[in-house]
Amino acid sequence: MRRPFLVLWLATLLFYLGFQILLPVMPLYATRLGAREAHVGFIMGVFALAAMVLRPIAGDLADRIGRRPLVLLGTVIFALAPLGYAAIGTIPGLLLLRVFHGTGMGFGPTAATVIATDLTPPGRRGAAMGAYGLASAVALAAGPYLGGELVSRAGFTATFLVATAIEVVALALAWALPETLPAAGPSPATRPGSLPPASRTGALARFWRRWFSPAAVYPSGLVLALYVSYGGIAALLPLFAEQRQLGNPGLFFTVFALVSLAVRSPAGRLSDRFGRRAVIAPALALSGLSLALLGLAFSRTSFLGAAALYGLGFGAGQPALLAMTADRVPPAERGRAMGTLYTAWELGIFGGSVLLGFWATWFGYRATWWIAAGIAWIGAVAALRPGGWRPG
What's 195's DSSP letter? Predict the structure, then answer.
C-alpha cells in the first residue's frame, strides 16, 4: 500500500498548493473590489459554509459509491474556480464563485482522508495521519508566500492561472488512485452505535442518523474549537499584517506550516503511544496561547513567533484528531465519520471567518485574537474529559 499512499500524498499536496496560493490573495482581491473586514470575513467564510454543507453528503457517498470519484470531482472544481476568479470583477460574482470553490473542498479532502485511513493499520494510524497531514502542511508552507509574491509581481490574473495549472497536475495524479471502499459493509440499521429502528422518531433524528456519525461528535467538537481561529486567520491575517505593517502575510503561514511540518509525525506517534487526548489537550492550549500573543504583535519577530507557536499546537492536534475519529468507527462507517468531523472543521472556519471578521470591525484585532484564544482554551479543557462523549 506504499505506492497508493504516496500517490495520494502527492495529489493532496498539489490539491492544497493550488488552494493555498490563493490564501493571502483572496482577501486583498476582495478589498480591491470594495469589501471591508466584515465583508471579507463573509466572502472567505462562505467557502467553508459550502464545504460544510457537503461534508456529510460526501462522507455518505464515500461509503456508498466509493472514495475515488469524490476526490476527482473535488479536484476538477478546484481547477475551474480560479479561472472564474480571473473572469469576474464584482463582489456578488466573487461570492458565488467562493461557494462553488467550497464545494470542491467538501468533496475532495473528505474522501481523500478516508482513503488514507483505509490504507493504514490501526496501530500506526496516528503516525500515518501525521505523515498524510504533511502534504497540506508543505502546501501551506510554500503556497501563501508564493501567492503573495506572484500577486505583487504578476498580478491577480496570473496568480489565478497558476493555481489552475497546479490543480490540473493534481487531477492527473488523483486519476491513478485505487478505490478503497470495502466490498461489503453493515447496513445503516446495523452500524455500530446506531439506534434500533423502533427508537428512530422524528425527522430530525432520521436526518441525524442518515448523514452523521454519533461516534464522531466528540472529536468534531474539539476540531471546532481548533478551527475557529484558523478561519479568522485565513480571512483577516493579510489585513491585520497590512494594518500593523508586518510585511508579507505569507511569511506567517510559512512559519506556521514549517513548524507544523516538524511536529505532525512525532505528535502522531505520541498519540499512538500515550493516547489521543494526551496530545490534543496541550495542542489546543498552545494554539490559544499563540493567538493571545498574536493580539500583542507589533513587530515581525513577535508576529512570526506567534506563527511558530500556532504551528506547534495546530500541527500536533490535527493528526491526533483525525486518528481519534477513525478509531471510533468501523471501516464501513469511516466516510460518514470523516464527513461529520469535516463538517465541524468547516463550521469552525466559516464561523471564525464571519464572527471574527465582525468582531475585528467592532472591537479591533487584539480583542478578536483574544476571543479566539479563549475558544481554543475551552476546547483544551473539553479534551481532558475522560471517555470523550462516547455514544452508548
Answer: P
pLDDT tens figures, 361-385: 888 889 999 999 999 999 999 998 7
Q: How far is CA 363 from CA 12, 42, 246, 297, 360, in A?
A: 38, 17, 20, 16, 5
Number of other CB atoms surrounding residue 165 within 10 Å: 13
Rounded CA gap, 328 and 295, in Å?
37
- Answer for the pair 78, 13: CB distance below 8 angstroms, yes or no: no
Q: What angle do CA 90, 96, 98 make, to 5 degrees?
A: 100
Q: What is the DSSP letter of 202?
A: S
The answer to whether 339 and 56 have CB atoms below 8 angstroms apart is: yes
Q: How far apart are CA 224 and CA 230, in angstroms?
A: 10
- pLDDT tens-digit readout, 7-24: 999 999 999 999 999 988
Question: What is the DSSP secondary structure assignment for residue 244, as one 8-state letter?
Answer: T
3-state secondary structure 258-293: HHHHHHHHHHHHHHHHHCCHHHHHHHHHHHHHHHHH
Helix (H) or strand (E) holding 42: helix 37-64
Give the Cα separation of 179 and 193 in Å (integer).
26
Cα dihedral value 127, 132, 133, 139, nearest 10: 150
Cα angle 291-281-391, degrees, rounded to a multiple of 5? 125
Q: What is the mean pLDDT of residues 202-210?
A: 56
